[in-house]
Amino acid sequence: MTGAGSRGEGIGNGRAIAVLMAQAGARVVAADRDASALDATLAMIAETGVPGLGVVADVGDPAGCAQIVNGALERFGQLDVLVNNVGIVGPAGTAEDVDPEAWDDAFRINVKSVMLMARHAVPALRRSSAAAIVNVSSIVAQRGGHPSLCYPATKSAVLGMTTAMASHYGPAGIRVNSVMPGNVFTPMVTTRGMSEEMRLQRRENNLLKIEGTGWDVGYATLFLASQAARWITGVILPVDGGLTSSVPLPTPPVSRG
Ligand SMILES: NC(=O)c1ccc[n+]([C@@H]2O[C@H](COP(=O)([O-])OP(=O)(O)OC[C@H]3O[C@@H](n4cnc5c(N)ncnc54)[C@H](O)[C@@H]3O)[C@@H](O)[C@H]2O)c1
Predict the structure, then answer these.
(1) Which of 94, 151, 170, 233 has the fewest CB atoms nearer than 10 Å to its CB?
(2) Is position 151 annotated as part of the catalytic site?
(3) Which domains, ranges and CATH numbers included, belong to the chain?
(4) What does the angle CA 140 – CA 146 – CA 152 come to, to the nearest 5 degrees?
């Protein structure tokens, strides 16, 4: 899986996914470009007693994607699951002012890496009897309101790749699904600064009025990766406390009883 570290102390989506998979008995190949962030995750995986492997690699580099899959095959001899979790926020700005070079970088890391990881992983996944890919998107892929253009664009591409790959690889027995996290409280958002007021508002925005965490994203990913979801493919699963269902109707619905 990619992006298995967390950009700060605490539990990001990637770290939670890696740890929950190890707790479920999976031999996790945890990849990240940040060695110290990865080490913290590897220490948590070690506590489960299930062997894992850390790979320091940049998925923005095609060689890095190959290195991760090759590392998995060399160490464990098989591959059953690919989780594409890496995602950076990328450059701020609208179409008028976003930096085009930073735009390309974000697409390389958030989008092209998903294609390249799949390119390297699919030959091995075809040999698995429990093959699954889970791509981590975001609710901003389907909802307006994000101040930048680039991040939602990359996350929409992840959804497009999910449904396309589900049809490409379904006949080969490889399931491809996506989780779409909402306003989860992770280092990805806290390290960019968040007031207590904003944190509270994010919680109040969802239907359950509960703060989501990386663990919520992790459990959803674990389910989609597992054989419990063996008949589920091409699905985009919001993990958002109902936020994407919470837009009230503009006028009360008319009863036709
Ligand atoms: N945290 C949220 O609120 C939230 C909400 C919606 C969607 N998401 C999505 O969840 C995913 C990850 O969330 P997270 O909490 O794990 O984020 P995170 O930033 O805490 O951790 C991601 C890890 O990815 C690594 N990484 C970044 N670029 C990399 C690269 N080029 N190659 C290898 N590793 C790289 C970082 O070093 C970091 O350790 C992303 O796809 C993000 O878009 C997050």
Answers:
(1) 94
(2) yes
(3) 13-242 (3.40.50.720)
(4) 45
